[in-house]
Amino acid sequence: MHRIIIEGNNTLNGSIKISGSKNSAVALIPAAVLCDEKVTIANVPNISDIDALDEILNYLGAIVDKKDDTITIDSSKIENKLIPEKITKKLRASYYFMGALLSKYKKVEMYFPGGCAIGARPINLHLKGFKALGAKVEEKDNLFIITADELVGTKINLDFASVGATINLMLAAVKATGTTVISNAAKEPHIVNVATFLNNMGAKITGAGTSEIKIIGVKHLHSCFHEVVPDYIETGTYMILASLIGKEVTIKNIIPDHVKSVISKLEEIGVPMEIGVDFIKISAPEKLKAVNIKTQVYPGFPTDLQQPMATLLTQAKGKSMINETIWENRFLNIAELKKMGATAEVITNSKAVIVGPCKLKGKKVKATDLRAGASLVIAGLIADGQTIIENADYILRGYEGIVEKLSKVGAKIRLEKMD
Ligand code: EPZ
């Protein structure tokens, strides 16, 4: 386990380069096994979730070659075998191997996936979609056995615009017989990134990024080169931080269109921004205004930025309300922020109130999940004194080089390995 130590209250100045999207890369890598030839994916973030997926690829017998941020995957000789539960449990995205292996072999056995403890995280919509495509799903002690004589294209309506179910069903449908239409599909940028990857291999997918995705099944997928889209959640995290203690911070290698909801919320809070083609420049204003945040599916305000935003709201003048509509257990950072002096209350599992501004003091706190950890890093950077963040491995799952990137712009932050 690691912990992060921060000496707070240093103004940040300079530029931060955004890495490839975690939530895209963790879908692209399992999707690669669909191809019977070598594929190359560039701009892959160097984070522990990717290491866990590499472990699965190697376990299945894929030939994986990594050079800097580029990974080449040859799945022509992989074996469709049961992945040990201890590996599957390392992350939520292991479940994309369900859709990919079912699509390739018409059979897959897999344990229930892992992931941050931000809710029950059922996969019923994924399984319902697999069944709609003609698969039989059995479950025994958290082990799923999914088989199909044939996967046949059909209409699938998602009860909720689930990111994971949209991607998993795209993977399952891409080699099915006939046409599949997924309606009420998720529209996040990573859905488009995965659909483009599959189309580069020869798939026939249209509508990704809208609520209706059409997939015409194909027989063969060929070699291709693809690039991971910039991480809009990492982008938003650093935008929020710069709005608090940035002298002049430029966040570069981004797609501003992907953070439109964050830009408009920060404008409402009173943060001036210079928005370029592939960068945003932010200098923290004197005053921040309290606002209400309601998390929604893309392109609404992202649930993954709710916790980092909560830290900013401790410094905003007035009473802010947070309404978390996606996950039922995503306020675990509030208790830690209160240890640092924040005035905040969790009202229900979907509502929290924060009153500011109040000066935070450095304390020993605990990261409970990835984005809660990000919320505490921001808190430590603006607090007086030293903050120690335990369980920092959560943070390393989703933020490539966070200590290096922040040190480069003047933060006093370091990583310590605990034995
Ligand atoms: C993805 O999770 C992301 N993870 C999450 O980011 C993100 O919070 C979430 O999408 C929403 O944007 C990855 O991409 C690896 P969902 P996912 O399926 O796919 C319910 C982070 O911090 N649901 O869109 O698991 C579910 O319970 C992580 O990077 C069902 O009920 O999210 C939740 O309430 C955390 N049944 C809602 O839908 C299902 O079968 C959203 O889930 C599937 C989902």
Write the layout of secondary structure elements.
Blueprint: E1 2-7, E2 12-17, H1 22-31, E3 38-42, H2 48-60, E4 63-67, E5 70-74, H3 85-88, H4 96-105, E6 107-111, H5 124-132, E7 136-140, E8 143-147, E9 155-157, H6 163-173, E10 179-183, H7 189-200, E11 204-206, E12 212-216, E13 224-227, H8 232-245, E14 246-252, H9 260-269, E15 273-275, E16 279-282, E17 292-294, H10 306-313, E18 318-323, H11 332-339, E19 343-348, E20 351-356, E21 364-366, H12 370-382, E22 386-390, H13 393-396, H14 402-408, E23 412-417
Parallel strand pairs: 2-14, 3-13, 9-10, 17-18, 21-22
Antiparallel strand pairs: 1-22, 1-23, 3-5, 4-5, 6-8, 7-8, 10-12, 11-12, 14-16, 15-16, 18-20, 19-20
Helix pairs in contact: 1-2, 1-4, 1-7, 4-6, 5-6, 6-7, 8-12, 10-12, 11-12
Bound molecules: ligand EPZ.
The site of ligand EPZ has 27 residues, from α1, α5, α6 and α12.
